[in-house]
Structures are given as structure tokens and as C-alpha cells.
Amino acid sequence: MIKTVIFDMDGLLVDSEPLWREAMEHVFAGMDIYLSKDDYVKTIGLRTTEVVDYWHKQCGWKDKSTDQVSQEILEEVVERVLQKGVLMEGATYILDFFKQRDFKVGLASSSPMLMISTVLEHFHLKDYFLTCHSGEHQDYGKPHPSVYLSCAEELGADPLKCLVFEDSLNGLIAAKAARMKAVVVPEKENRDKPEFSLADMKLHSLKEFTEDTLKAIR
After folding, report:
1. Domains plus CATH for the chain?
2. Which residue positions in the chain have pLDDT lower than 70?
3. Would residue 32 show up in a list of annotated catalytic residues for this protein?
4. Residue 8 among the catalytic residues
């Protein structure tokens, strides 16, 4: 029986994807690089360094190292979270839901630990999680399952008995590659993409998850 739940963070618990986009736009504009919204969607769910590496290969700037650009983006997005970040609809509801049912709860995010710590402290979410894992400490980022497997291992959980909540396709692929059950809550504009049928369940909001849906997914 599933008694462990692992959450993604960006775009699922906190509405940070627009803030990541703003931060990247600001940093890239300083190098005369301008990307469309569709361009940014291509790298949702990847680690910051992977996003920067991807666009460096496409755009080939020379004035800054990829590490420097990654750090600038991280600093920008952390500042934006503190200034205007908000939780996603149902974020505290779903965390309370599993806490009340004595689930082991973990977090597995592609974001660096600085971003994770900022979000958890700013929104007072830290006490919900027994462990938090960042993709920056893994050899491979999502869609590789490494961060989910590491989180499950620290929780002492069998991956086959874990439930994951995700919002991105890269994250969903990672969860399924880890052989975990997966609930996906995609952005509105991406909700109808056929690739999300890979999930065991697709929701419009975290608030839609109830005792009945838990029974169904088990």
C-alpha cells in the first residue's frame, strides 16, 4: 500500500515558473538574447544549469560563463519569490491531507537547494517534509529518475509504493521511470497535451485530490 508521497516544488506547490521565466528573461536580455514563451516551455522541469547549458548551445554567448549565468538567474528568481511569490491553489490543502493521514512526505525538485530553502522558509512549509532533495546534487536531472529514487531511499520507501505529484512533463517522466505512481497537475495551457496521459491521474488543481481519488490511485 502507498504510504509515501513525494512532491515536486516549482509550478506545483509554488507559482514560480513565471518567476523563473522573468529571471531568465532579465539575465538573457542583458546579453541581447530574447526568447519566446514557447522557448521557455521547452526547458520546464530541468535543472538551472541544464537550462543555461541548453540555451548556451543554441545562442552561444561569450561574455559570461554558464556557471555565472546560472547563478545570476538563481539570485534573480529567489528575490522574486521573496517579493511576489505565491503558493499554488491547494498547496497547503494537499500537504495537510497527507500529514493528517501519517504519510511519509518528501520533496524532490530540480531547483537548487537555495531556492528550495527560500520557498520552504518563506511559506512556512518546512515542517511538512521529512526530507528534501535537489537535482543539483544528482548526477542527472529530470527526466532521469535519480532525484526521486534518492528521496525514496532516504524515506526508507519502496519506489513501487510511492506517489509523486508533478506539474511538468520532464518531472512526470522521471517519476514513472522511478516506477512510482504519478499525479500530474499541468499548467492550464499545457493541460491537453497527450503526453500527460502517461500519468496515473491528471488534475486541474491539487484541491481535486480527495480520499476517493487516493483510494482509486492505490
Report:
1. 4-15+87-217 (3.40.50.1000), 17-84 (1.10.150.240)
2. none
3. no
4. yes
